[in-house]
Amino acid sequence: MKIYIKEWDYNKIINHCVRKLNSIYEDDETKERQAFGVIVGRKIDKNQFFVTRIVNLKNNYRFEDLTSKKMNSYIEKYAIPGGADVNERAWAIDPIELNYILVSLNGNEEFLGTYHMHSDISWAGDYPKYLPTLLDRKLNINSGLINLIVYIGEKKQQIRAFFESNIDMEYELIVVDGDDYSEN
Asked: Which residues share a beta bridge with 60?
């Protein structure tokens, strides 16, 4: 299983996560030290995808009352303890942003999945921050989506791709020069 992503888009994801982790915010986005975004692309075949664009999300719908209650219960039940406060963990896509993305799909583009970041401050303990957590898995089970886990460490940044945040279903993420990419 392979996902091809242009270097520009790969760097866009990393830069979005680093910026938010460093508390550098745009005027129209949720002010918090976590980043979340959408992966749009096209299917090459059953096991290969090409990312055509990345959409950095602005509004965390997680704070809407009903969504917040549900998310808090998931976090309390499945999240690794420590690190960020319960109210500062997790992201939910704003339905207005999601609708904008879905309406903007063109040609053979598809909503492939999402990305979000883990950092050294995400939780306490030894569980690797470059892998999906049980919480990630519970939030993505039966979604049919690709999930990119973006690890932002003090000395290393890394993106890994998983089907439904299942660590047993990892994609090979291949960074390509956008000008040189060919499906042939």
From this structure: 93
